[in-house]
Specification:
The protein is α/β, with parallel strands linked by helices. Helices cover 40% and strands 21% of the residues. It has 2 domains: 166 residues, Rossmann fold (3-Layer(aba) Sandwich); 125 residues, 3-Layer(aba) Sandwich (Rossmann fold), CATH 3.40.50.920. The protein contains 13 helices and 14 strands. Strand 10, helix 9 and strand 11 form a beta-alpha-beta unit. The protein is globular and about 60 Å long. The relative contact order is 0.13.
Length: 312
């Protein structure tokens, strides 16, 4: 694994904004005094006139983004997930979601892998919060390639979009010739017949690792990458569940209200089967390295493997 290319999706976010700026002249980027950390500083350096630092005032930033969208701009409002989804929830709901404005939210430092910043900054609730806002698209990319594709898709989509990015560097897994991204479409990254593993974000890599270990035990796992949690690709999940009869969900987020809940909602309506939800089990995180935390909470490849094997 030493030679596998790794890059943090927040870095991909900053690079994508800069790369797409000429193609989307109405793109403007807002930040809340965190341009160095969210990596929007990459855009700011290239296009200083199109970057607005709103200071440590995330709620106000969402209001400014709403106003800019009404003047024909495509604003990307950026901050840590804890602040973008958490602190500014009311403004995101009432000023962006309710009037269905064309505002994009780039939320970095999401999930457990914020690591040493500890529980106060490890936002494991943002997907749940954003899913509840009517008309909000919610995306969680698995790697550099998917993150860049999400930014482009968000710019092309008319309406509010929330994209969650991570702090830690993660392996590039979508560097295949046939990779194609579309909002609301999942992707089968590994075919299987014994159990379905539905994963999002960095957990797609953990799911792939787990599937390889399961194969050595004679268990054939199907792995599905769900980048768009809302709108959810129900068909790909239901069709796989009909084939395997068992479903496991994997997310770097609370098992309450996130991907697991979305998958369970879909299966309950279409094809009820037994589901195991792997994620943060109604607990806060703690300070530690990203890799140590993933291991402790059973979210690394080995942890997912053990939980799926026990479930099957």
């Amino acid at each position: 694994m030493a030679d596998v290319k790794k890059i943090a999706t927040r870095e991909s976010y900053g690079n994508a904004l800069k790369d797409l700026a000429e193609e989307f002249p109405n793109l403007v980027v807002l930040d809340a005094d965190l341009a160095g950390a969210t990596k929007t500083g990459i855009f700011k350096k290239a296009y200083p006139d199109r970057h607005i630092d709103c200071g440590i005032a995330e709620s106000n930033m969402m209001g400014i983004a709403a106003g800019l969208s009404l003047s024909g701009k495509i604003p990307f409002a950026s901050s840590f997930a804890m602040f973008a989804a958490g602190r500014a929830f009311e403004q995101v709901r009432n000023s962006i979601g309710y009037p269905h404005l064309n505002v994009k939210i780039g939320a970095t430092h999401a999930g457990l892998t914020v690591g040493e910043d500890g529980a106060s900054h490890q936002c494991n609730e943002d997907i749940a919060l954003m899913r509840t806002i009517p008309g909000m698209v919610v995306m969680c990319p698995s790697d550099d390639i998917e993150a860049k594709a999400c930014v482009r898709a968000a710019l092309e989509h008319v309406g509010p979009v929330y994209i969650r990015f991570g702090r830690a560097a993660v392996p590039v897994i979508n560097d295949t010739p046939d990779y194609k991204f579309e909002i609301g479409k999942g992707q089968i990254v590994r075919e299987g017949k014994d159990v379905t593993i539905v994963a999002t974000g960095i957990m797609v890599d953990s799911a792939i690792q787990a599937a390889e270990k399961l194969a050595a035990d004679g268990i054939d796992a199907e792995v599905i990458n769900i980048c768009t949690i809302k709108p959810l690709d129900k068909d790909i999940i239901v069709n796989s569940a009909k084939k395997t009869g068992k479903v496991v969900t994997c997310e770097e987020h609370s098992v309450i209200g996130g991907l697991g809940s979305a998958v369970c909602d879909a299966l309950a309506e279409e094809y009820p089967v037994k589901v195991k939800k792997i994620g943060m089990q109604d607990v806060f995180g703690e300070s530690g390295s990203a890799s140590d935390l993933l291991k402790k909470y059973g979210l690394d490849g080995e942890g997912v493997y053990k939980q799926v094997k026990e479930f099957v």
